[in-house]
Give the backbone structure.
Amino acid sequence: MKLTTRFLLILLAIAVLPLMLSVGWNIYQYNSSVTSYFELHRGLSSLSAVNVDEWFLNTNRNLAFLYEIENPLQAKKLDEARVIQQAARINSDIMSLSLVTRDGKEQFFLQSEKVKEKKSLALFQDALIAEARETGIVASGEVLCAKGQAFFPLVYPLVDGRVVVFHFSMDKLLGKINSQKTGRTGRVFIADGKGRPLPCQDMKGVDYAPDELKKVFRSAGRTGTLAKFKFSGEDFSGAYAAIDKLDWAAVSVQSEDELYGKQRKSIMVFGILAVAIFGVTMVVVFLISNRIIRPINNMVNGVKQFLKTQHLDSVIPQEGWPEIRVLVGILNRLMLELQAYRAFQLNQIVEEKGKAQALIDTISDGVLLVDDRGSLIYSNTTALKLLGIPKISPDVSVPRSVKNEAFFNALTEMLALKEKYLRIEVDAPISNETSTVLKSYRIISNQFLLATLKRPGRVIIMRDITSEKEIEKAKEDFFHMITHDMRAPLSTLQGYTELLMKKIGPSPATDKYLSSMLYSSRRLRGMIDDILNTTKLERGTMSLQMDTVDAESIIARIRDNHEPVAGPKNIKLSVKAPSPKIQLTADPILLERVITNLMGNSLKFTPSGGSITLSAWETPEEVFFAVEDTGPGIPEAKRKEIFEKYSQMEEHKSQGFGLGLAMCKMTVELHKGRIWVESEVGKGSKFIFTVSKSMSAPPPPVPSPS
Amino acid sequence: MSLMLIVDDNVEFRTMVSDYFTDLGFTVQIAENGREGLAKAKAIKPNIILLDVMMPDIGGIEVLRNLQTEDDTREIPVLVITGTFFDKNMNELFRQESNCREFMSKTVEMSYLQKKVEALVPVK
């Protein structure tokens, strides 16, 4: 439904509906009052009819005295005049009484002094007398009005051919009936069978056409109603009731104007009001639609258009009432600002995209964004070149469109996996203009989620690790060099020192010099070994050379090896020999490296005058080794960290590689053992490690040939 | 006198080892490369051979296998001493050969080497 229509209907409902209701109510009221007014007049007319009937009966009853006159068998001679006089005296209604002889002469007449007509009223009734004589039965005639007095004539024929003419007074009756006035215009009157009103009734203001009334009498029954009946040119309503004995009717009417005038008027007023309000409503709706609805429609269409095209082609016209105009103005401004903002945002996005593009295109890694169905969302030129995809287009998908076979296989394998983070290395032949080179790539893939994707897509990064691998190789070569070219001369140095010590024999000077030489070369050799061991341990390529080791002899040897350094530093080295002896299976060289490293650390940090104690003990499952010193101790927080590679306490940064403890940890773990430190800051540290006794026994010694 | 053959292309190391064991009373012969080592082993039939792994002509593993092919040299115990950064596989490879008794690094202490040699060849 259109806004205008809706508005119209709402207004109509508000304004006109109550009016309609009141009109309806008025009409209902009117109808019910019509009914009740008819009832009223019906009642009045019936009452009047009954009155007349009774009066008539009464009148007839008065004629009884005539039997006396008619009965000649009675013995005494009647004085007719006296009888009549007597009768007239008894009945006050009899106004005039005449005895008319056969030849029409009035034998005598008797007339009340109330009658203003001094002549005998019988003189008016020749026709009636003739009728009675002819038929021989009582005849009644039309009411006679003489000098303003109404008389009902009745002619009674006597058997001797004479007639008695009566005139009954009707003034009382008619006066009573006519006096029943309802309201201002209500009237009751008696009409005869021809519809004429009985004479001598005051019909002032109620002149009417008797024929019309007669028609009404004919068409209806004994009683009936009158509506819109013209009396003196005015509409009257009312009712009548027939008076059977006289072929008369009592009629009660009242002016319709008086009866229903007010109601009719109010119906009319309300009707006119309804029409007027309807008209006003129409005008208002038209005005509103001009001033509000059209601007609103304009706004709606304008905003719709703006949302559709994302561009403000034309501003919404400012029409209607001031508030609406202001609203339109605000809306226009809002859209303009939104457009400007959008443009700004777009610029920003384009700029950001440009930056990102520049960055991504500059890095040497191939970068791909693949959606959940494998379609290529984004990639840089490096990636396209690597994969052999000519151009990004909607139908490019990964891995289907990948031309390079090595990458195709790798990506197929990769995208089939569900893990969030994937990493794979692949060797792929890459051809440029001149040649084809085999290069190594590391492909890293991570999931990402966009609002438009149902399932996560993948970021794929392809990194050229050829040079990384070359560096790795170079590092290996470097280690090779160290071992092959550095260890051999060192061994020579060390071997001759040992030989020299044996050859020269003990003397304080040579002892000190040579043992220092031996200690230093051993230390250097130990460091080289540690580097190599760490590399092997990290790669997991370390193999243990198992042998049976005596715990006491190994710690004693290490104590001896470190005497040349501990002595001058005034540090006391001691060994707590386990008793009984402990034999265990381990890699003796590595085990020695572990204890030597711990010893070296303790020597480094223990101040002059301190002591270092080496000890070993066992449980059924494990053999324990401990190096306890009186150094500065290690704070709680650091006690785990120090076993990590290259981790060193800040204040000791300059004192070594930080490799030692990490190597120790890995070596101990290879022996299925644990390593930890117990320490009290300021008092000293105790490094403890274990070697599991479950380590396999060394291979049985090969019997010597001889 | 126990006879020892050292097969090693590294002059410093072999000289030192030779000096060390001569001092202990061994008669020490030296071969500079694999072929020479094989020839000398056949000729002098030493009680023990110290063998390097990396050599310019034929490597230690080939020498080891060739020694096994001759009846004269099959039983001679060999100690493989390598200066190379060796890995587990290499170790296993050598240990599978029946005449290889030990596989050790050149950084070994002479006293340790002496102990191993003396365990295989009792000093006379």
